[in-house]
Design a protein that fits this description.
Chain A is an all-alpha fold and 159 residues long. Chain A is 62% helix and 0% strand. Chain A has 5 helices and no strands. The longest helix of chain A has 23 residues. Chain A starts with 16 loop residues before the first helix and ends in an 11-residue tail after the last helix. In chain B, 44% of the residues lie in helices and 19% in strands. The longest helix of chain B has 25 residues. Classes of the chains: A mainly alpha (159), B alpha/beta (324), C mainly alpha (499). At the A-C interface, α1, α2, α3, α4 and α5 of A face α8, α9, α17, α18 and α19 of C.
Chain lengths: 159, 324, 499
């Protein structure tokens, strides 16, 4: 969505990339919301329609986002903006894996797999420890949520 | 849904039914039953379903796990029940809106309530009440109607559900009142009666279970009910009908199973449901929330759905009520 | 005196062995589900509802109320330990609570939260007992224009409490408002900004965003920069608050309790706004406001006292008017009506034992929570000693199950993950999450009340100026915003002149 700038060395294109791109992204979200509300009827005069508030808030968000972006051009950054990919993407993957497996495979398997994927997100993970830990966690979660709290969550495949 | 998928599912249903039949007929249920309630915990439908399920458990001698699947005015949870395996272990308990209002209001519900679900039995029924705030609370229905015709600025009517909106339009037609301001409370009825009490609105139409608490206070008064006869809980309040207005509407909820559930299981559940509703404790608890037990046969339930929908249709069309 | 007689009646009802037992069961169950993110009192109380059919009404209500405030308590625990607020009213607690945990002072934060909640509960009990009748009229004085103005004021608190640039916190609030528009239109039911996804037609749930933007995003950032964790997963000093902590917290607890008691009476968002208001007030009266956001103990004491006091006083409109402040209260009304008791104006006179028994039991329940939770502080803190590489997958697993359990929806779990990524991005760009979450919660009721205010005034916007309470609240908002801008403008000008 945004281009991270490399801090050191050459002079950055934008003095405060954090605010500039942050503001622009909000403008983008506002535009998306405005577009999403295009078919909603607005109100007449003082009366509200379903589309009035979304368009109003989206418009204000666009303006505020633009202001933040402009301020990003005139202010200076305190620390460079840097993203990493491993932790965010693997944590996301772990949650998505859970979402995809909970219905078909049940709580035990979904938790086990999600914990393993999540463990891969950390550089400190020791796999000899992580695999049994995943098994312990999925067992404990099954005991707590399915058996003790009796939540209507499938425990095993096909349940 | 595409035709081929429908056919495939029909075939699957027949197969499933064929396998389930011999075992099901005698011993159903052999495991706990999942009962989907497409409303949030604590909402009127949920409370009624829980009261009913509590007794159904006893009759069936099997556990029933209630799963609240909220979303899209009951469409999400009902769709999930409609798509579940038709083995009698996933059932749906929902209000009349799912079958009466939503097919008229929604261009797509994600399932077809007539084709994808089979009715089992009605559970409970209740009425709607027209209530007046401090300014109008001593007036009779006829006086209120006369005032509504001439009042300037127009009287304000608080409405907290689609059904209330439909009752409102029925009322305007029956009483030939043209100008009245509709004040919607669609996010929940919390402020409906406080606003009436404060005089921000003049009248409200609300389901009886939600209205009873405020009606006992004396500061707001019931003007009329939509029931065919007076309610034992509000014996002094007339019906619209006895005042000569053609307005009668009963809200109800009922039990359904996914299409393809074997007739034996449906018959067993119908019998068990009726027996549960006969229990005096159930009747007492339903009465406490201004409802009466409404056991029916599956056929009677289908008929009620068709009749109510025919009644609603012209209003929904005339006022272009639409959900999505 | 009436007050003493009422409290004596209440105590006599609440201390029967059965009612004491039900109260204890309630607060224990509540604490348990409160510390499990995603699981809330609503689902639990719904599940237990049939059980209460067999209980006497007073006992049933005492147990359900125990679950409610026990869960609030537990929700604060997760705010402090893992940066995941259990509900909207403990969002502010994360700001300084989690910083304290990071500095190895989770124990002090938890203990202060417990002590503050107990004090707030005591004060609120006395207030409820002494003033419930006049307070009821306050609740009734708030109509749509008043609620709208109150919520605008609430958003102004969120601007003031943030420590970043004002344009960014305003942008964050607007982002929350836009997100809150996803769902269905209140008046017509038309789907809005749902982009054809049926699961979005009821909006994005609080749990989804709180877990994603707070919990998952925090884990992502801790993994990429292990030094951010501070003491978590390692050395943790002192379990109990120091004398200095207590001295600093005492006035904050007092002020928070008063704000919470007052705003809790308003069923529309009072408790949430109370916690933000209490935090903002502490930041404004502090000698050194820059400590806030870095682990100021008052930043935990004030909102925790406020939300607990509000939880107590919110029983007033529920019992005396039948107006539920939230879904839990709606369930309790359901439980009472099934018992044949219809909450309303006569409950106080017809069922004094029920009302006063409940009020007294809430004080006893708060005492129980204090007694249970102070020793538990050690247990919670020892969880933070688990190496982070093992702790974080466990948090993720519990969150996933919790997110699923809210609506039994895998889609919600997926959305939680995506909001985790969004939260990571927001944090990187230094948009604070607390104001976003507040406006997300307040957005729909704000719109609803604005629209209704316009309808009942026949389209005349001057209703916000002619109704005194609404006008006062909006005036207060303007004053607060000006006060918030002034020092920053001055500072900027100084910087400009120096630079």
């Amino acid at each position: 969505m945004t281009a991270p700038t490399e801090g050191s060395g050459r002079a950055p294109l934008v003095p405060n990339a954090r605010d500039f791109w942050g503001g622009l992204a909000l403008v983008g979200i506002a535009a998306l919301a405005f577009w999403g509300a295009r078919d909603l009827p607005g109100g007449r005069g003082a009366s509200f329609g379903p589309g009035t508030a979304p368009r109003l808030f989206a418009g204000l968000l666009g303006a505020a986002g633009a202001l933040v972006a402009v301020l990003g051009l005139v202010s200076r950054e305190r620390a460079p903006l840097g993203y990493t990919a491993r932790a965010p993407l693997l944590i996301l993957a772990s949650v998505l894996v859970f979402a995809a497996t909970i219905r078909p495979a049940g709580l035990l398997i979904a938790t086990f797999v999600a914990v393993l994927v999540a463990s891969a997100a950390s550089a400190e993970t020791r796999w000899r420890e992580a695999v049994p830990w995943a098994a312990v966690l999925s067992g404990a979660c099954a005991l707590l949520f399915s058996l003790a709290l009796k939540l209507p969550i499938p425990l095993l495949p096909g349940a | 849904m595409t035709g081929s998928r429908k056919r495939w599912r029909a075939a699957a249903c027949v197969l499933a039914a064929a396998f389930a039949l011999p075992a099901a007929a005698q011993t159903y249920p052999t495991q706990s039953i999942r009962l989907i309630v497409p409303y949030g915990p604590g909402q009127a439908t949920d409370v009624m379903c829980r009261v009913f399920a509590e007794q159904l458990k006893v009759v069936l001698k099997q556990n029933i796990v209630i799963e609240n699947r909220v979303g899209a005015a009951s469409n999400l949870g009902s769709a999930e029940a409609a798509k579940a395996a038709p083995d009698g272990y996933t059932l749906l308990c929902t209000g009349s809106a799912t079958h009466v209002a939503n097919p008229l209001l929604y261009s797509s519900m994600g399932f077809d309530p007539d084709k994808d679900l089979v009715p089992i039995t009605g559970i409970a029924a209740t009425g709607y009440v027209l209530a007046a705030g401090p300014k109008l609370r001593d007036k009779s229905l006829k006086e209120v109607v006369a005032l509504a015709k001439t009042s300037q600025p127009p009287l304000k009517m608080g409405l907290a559900s689609t059904t209330a909106r439909v009752v409102f339009e029925m009322f305007r037609q029956a009483a030939s009142v043209s100008t009245m301001t509709n004040v919607p409370y669609m996010a929940g009825n919390r402020d409906l009666f406080p606003d009436l009490l404060r005089g921000d609105t003049d009248l409200v139409i609300e389901a009886m279970p939600s209205a009873m608490g405020s009606l006992t206070g004396g500061q707001v008064a019931a003007v009329a009910v939509t029931l065919p006869e007076r309610s034992p809980l509000l014996p002094k309040v007339p019906t619209f009908k006895e005042n000569g207005f053609d307005l009668q509407l009963v809200g109800w909820n009922a039990l359904y199973a996914p299409r393809g559930t074997s007739p034996e299981i449906v018959a067993r559940l119908n019998a068990a449901g009726r027996e549960a509703l006969k229990h005096p404790e159930v009747a007492k608890r339903l009465e406490a929330v201004a409802c009466v037990p409404m056991p029916t046969s599956p056929e009677q339930l289908s008929k009620m759905i068709a009749e109510d929908r025919a009644k609603w249709k012209p209003i929904v069309e005339e006022y272009k009520l639409k959900a999505n | 005196m009436d007050l003493l007689a009422n409290l004596a009646l209440g105590l006599s009802v609440a201390v029967t062995p059965v009612n004491l037992g039900l109260c204890l069961v309630g607060v224990l169950v509540g604490t348990l589900i409160g510390v499990l993110p995603g699981l809330g009192p609503v689902a639990t109380i719904a599940m237990l509802l049939p059980l209460t059919f067999g209980l006497p009404p007073t006992g049933a209500l005492i147990m359900l109320a125990g679950i409610y405030y026990g869960a609030q308590y537990g929700g604060s625990t997760t705010s402090i330990l893992v940066n995941i607020p259990g509900e909207a009213s403990s969002v502010v607690t994360t700001i300084d609570g989690f910083q304290l945990a990071r500095r190895g002072r989770a124990g002090a934060a938890l203990a202060i939260a417990a002590i503050g909640s107990f004090f707030a509960g005591t004060l609120a009990t006395v207030l409820v007992a002494a003033l419930s009748a006049p307070l009821t009229t306050v609740a009734l004085a708030f109509g749509a224009p008043e609620y709208f103005s109150l919520m605008v004021l609430g958003l102004a608190f969120a601007v003031v409490l943030s420590h970043g640039a004002i344009p960014k916190s305003i942008a964050g609030i607007l982002l929350g408002l836009v997100l809150s528009m996803v769902g269905s239109d209140l008046a017509t039911g038309a789907a809005r900004l749902a982009f054809g996804v049926p699961e979005l037609s009821d909006g994005i749930g609080f749990v989804v965003i709180a877990m994603g933007v707070f919990g998952f995003a925090e884990i992502m950032r801790n993994l990429e920069a292990p030094e951010r964790r501070g003491a978590i997963g390692g050395r943790i000093t002192g379990l109990m608050p120091t004398r200095a902590d207590l001295v600093q917290s005492a006035p904050a607890i007092g002020r928070g309790s008063l704000i919470g008691s007052a705003l809790g009476i308003l069923p529309g968002g009072g408790a949430v706004i109370a916690s933000f208001a209490a935090y903002t007030l502490e930041k404004r009266v502090a000698k050194d406001p820059s400590r806030f956001g870095q682990g100021a103990i008052e930043g935990v004491a004030a909102p925790e006292s406020a939300n607990n006091a509000a939880a107590q006083t919110s029983f007033i409109p529920m019992l005396t008017l039948g107006i539920p402040a939230n879904a839990v209260m709606a369930l309790m009304i359901g439980a009472l009506t099934i018992q044949g008791i219809i909450p309303g104006p006569q409950v106080m006179s017809r069922q004094p034992d029920l009302v006063w028994g409940l009020i007294a039991s809430m004080w006893i329940g708060n005492l129980m929570l204090l007694v249970i939770n102070l020793p538990l502080v050690g247990v919670w803190v020892s969880l933070l000693r688990v190496p982070y590489r093992l702790l974080f997958p466990a948090v993720i697993a519990i969150c996933c199950i919790g997110a699923y359990s809210v609506n039994n929806s895998a889609f919600d779990v997926m959305l939680t993950g995506l909001f985790g990524l969004a939260g990571y991005w927001l944090a990187k760009h230094e948009f604070e999450p607390a104001p976003i979450l507040l406006s997300l919660v307040l957005g729909p009721p704000m719109e609803e009340n604005l629209r209704r205010a316009m309808v009942i005034s026949n389209g005349d916007p001057s209703v916000f100026l002619t109704r005194p309470i609404a006008a006062t609240l909006l005036g207060l908002t303007a004053v607060m915003l000006v006060l918030a801008m002034l020092p920053r403008i001055r500072r900027r000008r100084e910087q400009v002149f120096v630079g």
